[in-house]
Amino acid sequence: MELSLNESRVIGVLMEKEITTPDQYPLSLNSLTNACNQKSNRDPVLSLSESEVQETIDVLTAANLISEVLFGSRVTKYKHRFCNTEFSKLHLNRQEFAIVCVMLLRGSQTPGELRTRTQRLASFNGVDQVEDVLERLASREDGTYVVKLAREPGKRDSRYAHLFSGDVDAVLSALPVGPNSQVSIQVSAPVGVGGEQRISALEEEVSQLRNELDELKAQWRELVD
After folding, report:
1. Of 13, 46, 185, 206, which sits most exposed with the smallest number of CB within 10 A?
2. Beta-ladder partners of 80
3. What is the pTM for the complete model shown?
4. What's the first-to-final CA gap in the chain, in angstroms?
């Protein structure tokens, strides 16, 4: 999958509300828009219009990641087909579901942050169990769904990022730069909404960033020498 920010937000919201407010799920366009624009439990905070959310719904519906449900003769509501349905190729247990949901809503996070932010969705015995689930999501037979980022300078814990948007920029930005640095990136994500062209563009960008990193290493060596 190659989900945009808006697509990730819409799917994350539907996953969240399916668990936290089952009596109100599926969601109407108005409820979905309000949930996408929540100021809590969202990063970044968005200000989407109903028309923007509807455009996003249309794209996800065409990709079979969302379906419409008619209530009466007037009200259309929406539910996700992202995972754990008869139409989904992706099946997650409760803990995996919680972690993926919170990552879609808030981006990359540490295991400790994920444990705190998934409390309404699933139970974890401790941070170690969160890390075990993350490692499982990073090495599943059906795909690599999360990646561990290099620990940032001054930070105690590494963050993990989801790969449903095929975004490797955060991985590269967390890599150390210096004369002894080594770059090793292995990212695998299913092809979907964005298609092969976006993957090709990302590969070119990675190649360019590698070259820039090599130049920085060379400049570093010259300064050290």
Report:
1. 185
2. 66
3. 0.75
4. 46
